[in-house]
Amino acid sequence: PPGTHPAWLPPEAFRPIGSRRTLVLGDGLLTETVHDEAARACARYGGHVHRHTRNEPYDLVLALTTAEPLPGPAQTVLDEFRSTTGPPANTIGGEGYLTARRHGVTTVLADDAAGLLYGLFHVVRLGERAFTEERPPERHAPTMRRRMLDHWDNVDIHPVMGQVERGYAGGSLFWRDGAPRGDLARVRDYARLLAACAVNAISVNNVNVHATEALLLTDRLGDVAAIADVLRPYGIRVHLSVSFASPVTLGRLPSADPLDEDVRKWWADVTERVYDTIPDFGGYVVKADSEGQPGPFAYGRDHADGANLLAEALEPFGGVVHWRAFVYNHRQDWRDRSTDRARAAHDHFAPLDGRFRDNVILQVKHGPIDFQAREPVSPVIAAMPATHLAVELQVTQEYTGQQRHVCYLAPMWREVLGFRPWGPDGPAVADVAGGVSGNGGGLVGVSNVGDDPYWTGHPLAQANLYAFGRLAWAPWTDPAAILDEWIDLTFTPAATGDTEPAATRETERLRHILHTIMDDSWRTYERYTAPLGVGFMVRPGHHYGPDVDGYEYTPWGTYHFADRDGVGVDRTRATGTGFSGQYPPAWSEVYESLDRCPDDLLLFFHHVPYGHVLHSGSTVIQHIYDTHFAGAGQAVEAGRRWEEAAGLVDPSLHARVTDLLAEQIRCAGEWRDQITTYFFRKSGKPDTRGRHISR
Ligand code: BDP
């Protein structure tokens, strides 16, 4: 709740029972953080933390494998692990940890201090269970080494976008009215929150780099360094979004041409200064030649030239450039039906595969268009085997309810990460982003956090932040299991009851209510908004609420082509834009075939008559009516279920969610009415179930 902080460590771990003791062994900044966390918990619940092995019994041992000598319980666990798994699998590895409970002692071992920190949070997740049953050694290591959140935060308030572009959780954590916010305690809490789900990188400013923000690279670098200092103890490296035109706008050079010697020198010098100031600086994020941002096209160069320019400057310091593949023409001639925005990223980037330097990460939005509630997976992900690819997700709910609607996104992300672009026997998206030994581009999310007391505006949107980190670490995890973890970490029994069995019962009731509301909430949202993968029926500009034709006759390239006979975008090779041909055969054949194309994506790939029969047996028009009535009804049902949570959660949190659900119900009804009316008028086809559709 606002103004308080949750109990981070389970009381069970630190209650002074008998000889309860915690041992933290090892060196390095992050080991100090682990120690401080443990010490803080002990101060709160009792118990003692030791830094050196003594001849005493321990309940919790947190140690680096390099600590000499390892205390008995830790050595036993390490020996058992090594004897049961042969090399090379018997190493723990970077950021990984080994947990076990043997002979009444819970142990976490890691090769590096980041692993120790993540192991500590694993114990937190386990709660009491970490200290009850015996457990054999279990190794946990991240699938993706890069787990990053991009903040679309402006330093100055932007006249249209405000302090945070597409932010729905108040102001920025970092900036206010053109200056650093100065509340580093809050940034520290944020770092801790991110470490709890193992996010290890952030960028601190908007990808649309305006004049003030551009200065973070040079004159205002000290502001970035101050943030980096606070994030460092939690293992988080800072990145900056930079403008490709910086050599001109900041360096007063006549050009930003990536092949110009003066330009290369400018970036090299500036980058050296960055690393003098922030030695563990992560690197640059670049949006170029997109939606008005400058880029290499102005100089007749391509995006490999552009990305390599910055990569060259960062390389001596171990930095990376996150170069975004979100490049398209937002001033298309909408009357020319052969142009297709969905094609753009693949058209621009696939031919460049193999030309990027090793420290370039091409950051690809998960879908080919723009974070709609339903899109196919971007074909770029399968098209660039010689390039490090990161998959970009939108944690901030721009197109999924703007943190006024409940929309738990982990099921969508899990589908994306599990998608196999080459067919059932090929690697999945998670394998591509993970790369060999985790060294792929990883997962990047656009942050949904702001200075709101609940961090994310809608308290239930916190689950998306948490799930993002967990899926970047372990992409095969069941979204419902992640939700359980989040529920356990967020709603402590202490807040819900007094005696233990009663508290447990209440927690379980709350858990059931939250699952009922959240598990299917993404599909509910999909049902009452744009149908069958067609996307973009939102109000132009702010993108909240329905406006079916809002973008239909504009230069943005996002059309549904509804007329009296049918709806959808023909993206086939035979008769349409040819986008479907950008996939490997396993999927291009599926998507192109009217018979095989999944219902969910039908209108993304095909223009069909309203009477077209789906796999579900329903017609397109009837499906549109049915899903919109069903989805809006499910929003009402979510509101009803939440009423049952009164008394189970903090009253102010309950009130906040109640208000937001009222807005979701209103807005879902508006979507239902506008979409059903629109399609009824276009098609003239009545609802076979006779529900009221206004004319
Ligand atoms: C779109 C947002 C816009 C962002 C853009 C991006 O509407 O505000 O600048 O994505 O990803 O979804 O750069």
From TrEMBL:
Pfam families: Glyco_hydro_67C, Glyco_hydro_67M. Residues 139-455 form the Glycosyl hydrolase family 67 catalytic domain. Keywords: Carbohydrate metabolism, Glycosidase, Hydrolase, Polysaccharide degradation, Xylan degradation. SUPFAM superfamilies: (Trans)glycosidases (SSF51445), beta-N-acetylhexosaminidase-like domain (SSF55545). Belongs to the glycosyl hydrolase 67 family. Residues 456-691 form the Glycosyl hydrolase family 67 C-terminal domain. PANTHER family: ALPHA-GLUCURONIDASE A. The keyword Hydrolase applies. This is Xylan alpha-(1->2)-glucuronosidase. InterPro entries: A-glucoronidase_C_sf, GH, Glyco_hydro_67_aGlcAse, Glyco_hydro_67_C, Glyco_hydro_67_cat, Hex-like_dom2.
